[in-house]
Amino acid sequence: MKSNLDLVDECDNFPYPDKDPKAHFALLSSLYTLVSQNGTPIGYLLESVFNSLVKVPIKLKGELEDISAWVPPIRTPAPPSDPSPSSSTEAQRSALVAGTTAYWREKKTFKVLDGWRDELYPVYGPGNELLFSVERSASALLGVVTYGVHMTGFVRDQSASFGIRIWIPRRAKTKQTYGGMLDNTVAGGMATGEEPFECLVREADEEASLPEDLVRANAKACGTITYIYIRESRAGGESGLIQPECEYVYDLELPSPVVPKPNDSEVEQFYLWTVEEVQSALGKGEFKPNCAMVILDFFIRHGILTAENEDHYEEIKRRLHRDLEFPGPHKS
């Protein structure tokens, strides 16, 4: 059985400099850093990704500044002493990224691009401005922060421990990523230009057939969780890609007559489980890694996971809210 700390380790598995400095330094030494126009780090690339980037025709990818970083703007960055702003636009930078990732897809350079979604994810610059957008399936190749929403739906039941039962969906076995694993009641990625709550409303309908008016009136924002995930085979595509993420977390108390139902091919079925049933599934490793993190956050906020019953309580709390060094709305 996995402990709660094991579940955190499985998702937030990028080494911490204070906890394991040797592993942290070794991993950073093997990565290339993606930087913005002014040199602000915005992502981590594997050496294999960088080597493939070098081979992309320059008319598609723009200029390589040097062997340690790729600068998306068309123009070579000005020296730090030159305050001149970039002449490139977000649209131009996005076009360069799109050209690069489409080239990789055409050449079948990376297996992760087999999951091409035709969805764009935002990448932010040093002032939290939109720097460029990137195809969702390619975001992990650039190691940039991605954003999503996760909601836990529950019902009141005084006959159950802690007075609640939780709606847990099982992902369809046919999904390219984490097929057959357990998920949060509603979850999904945020596209460029999409606000967290509007993303939640959309996903609640698509994944759980929850009425829009019910979600808008009753869903409660509960902050965010942040972590850095080193992808493995269940995520689809290449293992080892770096994936920093920020998830906007919501709770939704549902009236007992409302039953979430699959509305697309992504969810196989929903279970209404007691806290103990959810804990058992967590211990068996049945949850998608970041969904386990959201459940632990829910347990902490609802007084189910406490310092009295969890030896690693403070560490778990801290690591559910990891500091991401890259810019973006999570810094706001």
Automatic annotation (TrEMBL):
Residues 72-92 are annotated as: Disordered. It holds the Pfam family DUF4743. SUPFAM superfamilies: Nudix. GO terms for molecular function: 8-oxo-dGDP phosphatase activity. Coiled coil: none annotated. Residues 74-83 have a biased composition (Pro residues). InterPro entries: DUF4743, NUDIX_hydrolase-like_dom_sf, NUDIX_hydrolase_dom. Residues 146-295 form the Nudix hydrolase domain. PANTHER family: THIAMIN PYROPHOSPHOKINASE, THIAMIN PYROPHOSPHOKINASE 1. This is Thiamine pyrophosphokinase. It comes from Hyphodiscus hymeniophilus.
